[in-house]
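Q: Got a minute? One more chain.
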Amino acid sequence: MKIILLHGWNQNKKIWGNILSKLSNFNTLAIDLPGFGAEKIIDNNWSIPEYADWVANKIKDYKEVILIGHSFGGRIATKIASENPKWLKGLVLSGSPSIYRPKISTKIKIFIYKILKRLIPHKVKVQLLPIELKKAYQNGMDTIFRKVVTYDQTTSLNKINVPTLLIWGLNDTEVPLCISEEMTLKIKGSELKVIDNAGHNSFLDNPNLFYSYVKKFIESVK
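A: Always. Here it is, folded:
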């Protein structure tokens, strides 16, 4: 059994260091996704399907895999799982915005920006971008970022047929708990574990509890 870990946006495989050390008794591998860490951007028009194909091709030689995906990595893992490859035996999602439900404040910001971008110089427009989008723009990944953020997987969640565990921080403000609850209802037989006093990066906020949930899940799949 191979445990593959996929990191979030603006992160890299090193973010999993603590969890990797705890999973040392298992056959684990954390990988950098294109555009992050040691992996260069392959195509700046990519979205979730292209990332999913890239990951699937990279790990295709493993016969039994459990995917653990956080946030952006969770979107990718969700896409792979919805296609039910024979080698996939389990799925763990944490802080994954697989259901696209933009906040009202986000909708307002987008509306205002669309109006202003016609009226103000390009340099000023860049300064008005949200922090994540501004960083993506500076790294040549703004098109990817926009496609990734708005990629909605709601209708494909019921296609997932492997054992699935969702682990969420109770105080996750980036991907609220209600998203995980809706995902749990849509993914057949899935289970949700909530970590108190943890935010979006629950595996950093409480690595011991996160690991205990993952360990129990791996053992149940094996």
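A: The beta strands are 2-6, 27-31, 65-70, 88-94, 164-169, 191-195.
Q: Perfect, thanks.
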